Amino acid sequence: MSLQTKQSIWRFIFWCGCFIIFCTFTTLLVQHMQNQKNSFKRKMQSKVIPGKVIILNGPSGSGKSSIQREFQKLMMPNLWLKTGIDTLFDAPMPDITPENIEVWQSPNPIRWIESKRNENGYPEITLKVGEQGARVAYAMNSAIAAYAKNGCNIIVDYIAYDQAWIDHLEKELAGISTYWVAVRISLEALEKREAERGTSPVGHARSHYYTVYGDRQYDIELSSEVLSASEIASKIVGIIKH
User: Fold this and answer.
1) 151 plus 175 within the same structural domain
2) CB within 8 Å of 11: residues ≥ 6 apart
3) Are 222 and 182 a contacting pair, CB within 8 Å?
């Protein structure tokens, strides 16, 4: 073997060794940076103090959205987010249009409306939720809990169409400081509001009026028929600062 050949072999071995060392160093450097990133992430997560949650449960049209807005004003400059069934359950759903209206008037996997008159002749327009729609409701609950777990305070406009939903929400909020508020109103006053506002069909509130509160214990029960939204918000501020 000539000297030139030997030199070529040694050069090849040398550069292979350099390449292996470079790859090993790069791999170790990337792993170290990833470990540092994960360590920082864990430290940041461990420092997050869960936020507080206020659940306003009551029938459609009982004034919960107004209470949310008034409460936010009173709590400024401390941040309290507002969300609820409109934004986390209703808004993400497919739009109801003239072309697909028939879908929403008969049983389907998402949701539909049943219209009837009760034994006293009053109209009842009931929201029914299918298997796919129920998943959205449970995802809504998880989202509410996620806000709090990431350190956000949140006040929620909730309608417990199904008591299984609010039972699930309670489990999702385990370990989080939560205040349960029943927003009460007489059916007569509620249906008057419903007719005046026109935001939901007359008979919708009646359909869940007697079941929405369930048999749970609330931290406070307030009447939006007797008290204004700002007065109710003030009372809620009082219980969370007590």
Assistant:
1) yes
2) none
3) yes
- Residue 29: which domain range? 1-47
Residues 16, 79: one domain?
Answer: no
pTM of the full predicted structure?
A: 0.79
Q: For residue 64, give the CATH number of its domain.
A: 3.40.50.300
Write out pLDDT tens, residues 167-199: 999 999 999 999 999 999 999 999 999 888 877
Joined tokens for residue 5:
């050949």
Contact between 157 and 56 under an 8 Å Cβ cutoff? The reply is yes
Taking alpha carbons only, the member of 54, 53, 64 closest to residue 185 is 64
73 and 120 together in one domain: yes
How many domains does one find in the chain? 2
Residues 108, 178, single domain; the answer is yes
For residues 232 and 182, give the distance between their C-alpha atoms in angstroms, rounded to a whole number: 11
Nearest to 193 by CA among 182, 180, 202, 181: 202
Question: What's the rounded Cα separation, in Å, for the pair 153 and 149?
Answer: 9
> What is the C-alpha to C-alpha distance for residues 171 and 163, in angstroms, rounded to an integer?
13
Please tell me which residue, 24 or 91, carries the higher pLDDT value. Answer: 91
| Cα–Cα distance list, 198 to 60, 99, 180 (Å) | 12, 22, 28
